[in-house]
Amino acid sequence: MTRKQKRFTVIFGALALLGVAVALVLTALSEQVTFFRTPSELLAAPQENTGRVRLGGLVETGSVQPADGSTIEFAVEDANDRIVVRYTGILPDLFREGQGVIAEGMLQSDGTFMADTVLAKHDENYMPKEVADSLKEQGYWQHEGDAQATN
Q1: Does residue 42 sit in the same domain as residue 115?
Q2: Residues 144, 133 within the same domain
């Protein structure tokens, strides 16, 4: 083998090894990916959202109710739709009606969302960018603690 052939073989082998490593990482990460959806997007195509999903929007005023034991039900809304969320556990301290929230879990066949994680915004000036952008697109935005529709 000439020097040129050896160099080509080493470079080709390194690129092949790098390609296999990238493929393994992407395969492993694809199982951990959860997609963000608003209530309208989730209800528009429920058959596409059979895996884990992140549901984001505003907690509907008057919707927070205790269900069974430590299970709590509340509704997450956007400008067009609402989804009832069931969550078993302790809600974040900053969770309240009219505030931004992200619930992670799965959409059930009866149309309720079974959440295993609930995240609330952490101060008055922050809402996750995905949630804020989606609410702005729909003309539904939160100002100083009040949910307002700008229709």
Answers
A1: yes
A2: yes
Contact 57, 102 (CB under 8 A): no
> 19 and 60 share a domain?
no
pTM: 0.62
Contacts of 54 by beta carbon, 8 Å cutoff, 6+ apart: 34, 35, 36, 37, 102, 103, 104
Are 46 and 14 members of one domain? no
Q: Which amino acid is at 88?
A: T
Q: How far is CA 37 from CA 1, 51, 122, in A?
A: 57, 12, 20
Other CB atoms within 10 Å distance of the CB of residue 145:
10
Q: What is the pLDDT of residues 76-116, one digit of tens each?
A: 988 888 899 999 988 888 888 888 888 988 888 888 899 99
| Interval 118-148: pLDDT, tens | 988 655 455 667 767 777 777 766 554 444 4
Number of domains present in the structure of the chain: 2
Range of the domain at 137: 35-149
Q: Could you give the C-alpha distances from 59 to 17, 20, 103, in angstroms and in order? A: 48, 44, 10
